[in-house]
Amino acid sequence: MVITQPQAQPAVDALRTAITQFDNAAERLNLEEGTRAMLRRCKRELSVHFPVRMNDGSIRVFEGYRVQHNLARGPAKGGLRYNSNVSLDEVRALAMWMTWKSAVVNLPYGGAKGGVVVDPKQLSLGELENLTRRYATEISIIIGPDEDIPAPDMGTDGRIMAWIMDTISMHRGHTTAGVVTGKPVAVGGTLGRLEATGRGIQYVVEELSKDNGIGLEGSTVVVQGFGNVGAVAAQLLRRAGAKVIAVSDSSGALYNGEGLNIDSLMAYQKDRAPLSQAAGGDHLTNRELLSLRADFLIPAALEGQITAENADEVKARFIVEGANGPTTPEADAILAGNGVTVVPDIVANAGGVIVSYFEWVQDLQFYFWEESEVNERLHRVITRAYRDVRTTAAQQGISMREAAMMLAVGRVVEATKLRGIYP
C-alpha cells in the first residue's frame, strides 16, 4: 500500500514579503529591470517525490524541495526544514532571505533552502533516518561542499545532518564532511554551532542596548518561540543580566513580570512538554505575548507573526528578529510609525550561517578551532554587520531593514556585474 502525504498550503505571504522587501531595495538602488527580474526569481528549483518504507511495512510517498536562489557570491547555503506546512513558495522565500543574509554579513555564499512536507514527530527514529537518507539521495545531484551546503532548520538537527553527510559520503566513496554544516562535533561539526543563532541575537541585543543607552542588566525581554534559537537567546540574555519575562511555544505563552527561570524551562521542554502547562508564571496566548510591554521582543518562531492585524498592539521598544520573515511589510510601516525599532532577520539571526561558514572552513582545512575562537569570530562578524546596517540607516534616514536590504542586494548586484552574464 502506498500512501501519499498531503501537500502543504503554499506560503504565499512569506514569498510576497520577501519579494516586496527586495523590490523596495531595488527601487532605492535604482536597479535596471533585467537585474531586478533576475534577482526576483530563484535560479534553480528541485522538487522531489520519494517513497519511504514505514515500520508497519507500508510505503509513504513524501514531497521535498531544494531551492537555490542565487550563486553570484559563492556556493549556495541554507537550512533544511521538516514541517507539515513546508511548501515550494515558502522555500523560495527562505532561499531568497538566505542570499541577503549571507551578503549583509559578507560571507562568500549564495542563498538556498530545502524542506520535506512531514511532521517529524509522527515518525519513529528509524523512519526518520530512512526518510532523511532517501531525501539526501534525491537532492544529491545539486548539493556538495563546492555547490550547495545544507544545514539544520525547523524540525531537523545535528543527527539528521550526520545522516545526510554519511549518505553523500557513501555515494562518493569517501568522507565528505563539508557537504553539510550543523553536524555533531564527533563527525566534523564545530564547537559553538548549536548556540550560534541565539548567541548572535545576544550580541545584537547588546549592541542595540549600547546604542540606545539601555543597561542590559535588568532590561526586559519577551521571546516568541522556545526552540533552539529562542531558548538559547533567552538563556544567554538571562545570564547577561536581562529579565526574560515571557516565552512561548505553539501551545501558548508563559509570563512572569519578575522574570522566568529559563534554565528550568529548558529542562522542562527536553521532553517536548508544552509551555501552556509549565509552572512559574501566568499563561497567555501567543497574541497576548506579542502585546506585552518590554524593552526587547524577539520573535523566534515562524514567518508572518507580526502583521497589519496585530502590529499596533506591539508595545516593545525594540524588535530583534530571531525567525526568518516574522514581520510583514505592512507591519513594518505600522511599527515605524509607532517608533518601534526593528533589527531585521538577515542581521539578527545570522549567527547560524556565520558559524556554519566557520564549520565549512574547518572541514575543508581539516583543522578545528576552540569554542572561544568560534564565539569571538562570531561576535566580530555579526557586530560589524550590525554597525554597517546602523550606519547606513542613519546616513540614509531609513529603517534598519531597508538599510540591510540595500547593503545585501548591492553586494549581490556588484558580484553579478563583475562576473558578467554567461555566455
Spell out the CATH superfamily of the largest domain: Leucine Dehydrogenase, chain A, domain 1
Number of helices in the DSSP assignment:
14
The CATH architecture term of the largest domain is: 3-Layer(aba) Sandwich
CATH class of the largest domain: Alpha Beta
- Work out the count of structural domains: 2
Q: Give start-end ranges of low-pLDDT stretches.
A: 1-12
Please report the distance between the alpha carbons of the first and last residues.
49 Å
What do we call the CATH topology of the largest domain?
A: Rossmann fold
* Tertiary shape: globular
Mean pLDDT: 94
Structural class: alpha/beta
Radius of gyration, whole Å: 21 Å
Please provide the count of β strands.
Answer: 13
Q: Estimate the helix proportion, in percent.
A: 40-55%
Strand arrangement in the largest pleated sheet:
10-9-8-7-11-12-13
Verbal overview:
This protein is α/β, with parallel strands linked by helices and 423 residues long. The protein has helices at 12-29, 33-40, 88-104, 125-139, 158-172, 196-211, 228-239, 262-268, 286-290, 329-337, 345-348, 351-365, 371-396, 400-419, and strands spanning 2-4, 44-53, 59-70, 76-83, 110-117, 148-152, 220-224, 243-249, 252-255, 282-284, 296-299, 318-320, 341-343. The protein has a 7-stranded mixed sheet, sandwiched between helices. It has 2 domains: 2-17 and 43-181, Rossmann fold, CATH 3.40.50; 196-348, Rossmann fold (3-Layer(aba) Sandwich). Residues 1-12 have low confidence and may be disordered. A hairpin with a 5-residue loop joins strand 2 and strand 3. It is built from 14 helices and 13 strands.
